[in-house]
Amino acid sequence: MKFTARQIAEILNGDIEGNPEATVSKLSKIEEGEKESLTFLSNPKYTNYIQSTNASICIVNKDFKSEVELTTTLIRVDDSYEAFSKLLEYYNQIKLSKSGIESPSFMSDSVSLGQDCYIGAFSYLGENVKIGDNVKIYPNVYIGDNVEIGNNSILFPGCKVYSESIIGENCVIHGGAIIGADGFGFSPDDQGIYKKVPQIGNVIIKDDVDVGAGTTIDRATLGSTVIHEGVKLDNQIQIAHNVEIGKHTAIAAQTGIAGSTKIGEHCLIGGQVGIVGHVQIGNYVKIQAQTGVGRNVKDKEAIQGSPALGYNDFNKSYVHFKNLPETIKRLNSLEKTIRKNESKS
Q1: Mind listing the pLDDT tens digit for each residue in 219-262?
Q2: pLDDT tens-digit readout, 157-181
Q3: Domain of residue 253, residue span
Q4: Is 169 helix (H, G, I), strand (E, B) or coil?
Q5: Same domain, yes or no: 52 and 89
Q6: CB–CB of 235/214 below 8 Å?
Q7: Rounded to the nearest 5°, which phi and psi values hold at 326?
Q8: Measured in whole angstroms, how far is the alpha carbon of residue 229 from the centre of its chain?
């Protein structure tokens, strides 16, 4: 799909300097700009690249001044970074603007399907599924019985949504994610043989949640596993049964959260964090990567280590840890000196 400088300027409410009919069909970084590509200049460190870029159109701030004549067409806006982000969003909307029902796919007769939806090939929609307006379900998606999906949500190829799960509006579920699989519930009998505990709860994902590729969110044993509004989950995260994650918390890849743990709002959790079950994590908590959390965490704490320490305590301790070989060497030398003095006395 091609756009002219005139069309882009209208979208961004910008002013054109150069050829209004210049066309672009792709995006590029300013230092890698090619013909018929669109780029932008925001960071002054990259100003020299605008003189040599081959990009056909470049978005710049209104106060930008060049000391040499430029070959690229400029679109001047108040904030070039914000404008480029807006354009990316616009481009993404066009790219994802699929609609219709592809064949082969299966939908139960009891499915309720909203307007302007897209159902990709080889997708399966079970009994009593309710799909809102403008929902995009890409190929090879499984949606179990009694699932509800809100308006404008996107399910990318290969994700699985088990029965009874509820997904809100404007959510994005990436490929390979599994929503509503059984929680890890087993109980040993007298012989130490594990018997499965039925998992009869569900998963509730509120509005504006992103779930990364390969992430799993287990259904509750009883009640619901709840992911609140605006939560952002990276790839390959494990969220166990009956976990609750508060609004606008962001969690990086390969984190594992054990059952019945409650995480507060606006938390930042780094990659490869492990959190035990049945603990409470407060609001605005920061957990550094590879931390092992085995206790409750108060509001606004920053923690690190395994087991976790206060972030500042960990850094102080780590300074000593790095110096440990030298410290041991000095200690051994001191002990030898003491023994020599004792033998002389």
Answers
A1: 999 999 999 999 999 999 999 999 999 999 999 999 999 999 99
A2: 999 999 999 999 999 999 999 999 9
A3: 100-313
A4: coil
A5: yes
A6: yes
A7: -65, -40
A8: 13
